[in-house]
Amino acid sequence: MSTNPPNLRPDLAPKARMSDPARPGQPTIGMVSLGCPKALVDSERILTRLRAEGYGISPDYAGANAVIVNTCGFLDSAKAESLAAIGEALQENGRVIVTGCLGAEPEYITGAHPSVLAVTGPHQYEQVLDAVHGAVPPSPDPFVDLLPASQVSLTPRHFSYLKISEGCNHKCKFCIIPDMRGRLQSRPAHAVLREAEKLVQSGVKELLVISQDTSAYGVDIKHATDRGHRAHITDLARDLGSLGAWVRLHYVYPYPHVRQLIPLMADGLILPYLDIPFQHAHPEVLRRMARPAAAAKTLDEIAAWRDICPDLTLRSTFIVGYPGETEEEFQTLLDWMDEAQLDRVGCFQYENVDGARSNALPDHVPQEMKQDRWDRFMAKAQSISEAKLAAKIGQRMEVIIDDIDAEAATCRTKSDAPEIDGNLFIDEGFEALVVGDIVTVEVEEAGEYDLWGRVLE
């Protein structure tokens, strides 16, 4: 049992969980999945295709004939983490195929690790399969392996990420995701619904909707209606809410039409949870970032959302130390936090990223000042979180059980996304609980980021 640290990065995917035993003689592939939940979905798709071709999935280096490393290239620190993971896989296994966002820069990878077998870019599934075939030829058992494959899940069985689009049309100066993953490409709504239905039928209790820009879903295909389903986030949310699972929305830009989602939350159709990357609050910083949404009206929007749905949980991420950020601009952000009273907050210190336009901006903030501002920002966020959680003592709420060990059952409320938000712990009378169950608890104790409660009969 562990509590959430205050500096938990909001861009990290849950740890991949693989436990399929291989049959004798079956070729096996390992997977190291780095980066955000969107990359985890890509890893799941690659492994699903490989399993359909007769490959086994190894949970460790020793049992794998080759290892795929799905990389992240969002920040320089993430690039360094990806290079380190590739190096570890080479040392432990020796036969490594690289894919993912950092794969968009193959010379960067091969310059550091020339012995990798192949490098492919993000969501290049066919190229990854070709590389695996070349390194480890398939050897399927026609009586076992060539049946229709169920989807490989790298998350616990009771929740799953549901990617509704790829790419992004924004041109934020600090971000190179559009360069790596391309412009917005929305999936047809009926295809998303079909995947969601299969997940719920397989036992998934919570669907986590992800993309680069969830609010923009369907814009590129002009919100086309196909087979009775319209490609618009409001319609999609309503359709997903009819499946009976928890539906949680991530990466939602605060466009005006987002207000149409809030009544669905107030009615209990989808979770009262919005993950909105505000990034900053001062208009000049947002202008230098080239952000697509104006901050001036965000406080009014938040107030309007809460009027419709008082139980709404708001999560966001911010960048401190952006080039040119003055003390006055940073103080505006702290003051905005006091007014906005966001429930869940993550924060980055600005980093240069190769290819980002923000690198060329003047007046970069010294590292020690970035650290000081990060410390002050997180202290503010922590105090808000602590007060909000203390107000929940005595409330009754539904929680979903993620894990059970000898000390407690680790659960999440409707206000908590996996791995990035808080937990609710049940440390008495939890012996009969089952992972994946949704139970009602009464909150008895609160900390800075987590709750403790007891199960109600």
Automatic annotation (TrEMBL):
It catalyses: L-aspartate(89)-[ribosomal protein uS12]-hydrogen + (sulfur carrier)-SH + AH2 + 2 S-adenosyl-L-methionine = 3-methylsulfanyl-L-aspartate(89)-[ribosomal protein uS12]-hydrogen + (sulfur carrier)-H + 5'-deoxyadenosine + L-methionine + A + S-adenosyl-L-homocysteine + 2 H(+). Its main location: cytoplasm. Its cofactor is [4Fe-4S] cluster. Binds 2 [4Fe-4S] clusters. One cluster is coordinated with 3 cysteines and an exchangeable S-adenosyl-L-methionine. Pfam families: Radical_SAM, TRAM_2, UPF0004. SMART domains: Elp3. [4Fe-4S] cluster 1 binds at residues 36, 72, 101. CDD domains: Radical_SAM. GO terms for molecular function: protein methylthiotransferase activity. It is found in: Cytoplasm. Residues 1-28 are annotated as: Disordered. [4Fe-4S] cluster 2 binds at residues 168, 172, 175. Residues 27-137 form the MTTase N-terminal domain. InterPro entries: Elp3/MiaA/NifB-like_rSAM (IPR006638), Methylthiotransferase (IPR005839), Methylthiotransferase_N (IPR013848), Methylthiotransferase_N_sf (IPR038135), NA-bd_OB-fold (IPR012340), Ribosomal_uS12_MeSTrfase_RimO (IPR005840), rSAM (IPR007197), rSAM_horseshoe (IPR023404). Belongs to the methylthiotransferase family. RimO subfamily. NCBIfam families: 30S ribosomal protein S12 methylthiotransferase RimO, MiaB/RimO family radical SAM methylthiotransferase. Catalyzes the methylthiolation of an aspartic acid residue of ribosomal protein uS12. This is Ribosomal protein uS12 methylthiotransferase RimO. It comes from Roseobacter fucihabitans. The lineage of its organism: Bacteria, Pseudomonadati, Pseudomonadota, Alphaproteobacteria, Rhodobacterales.
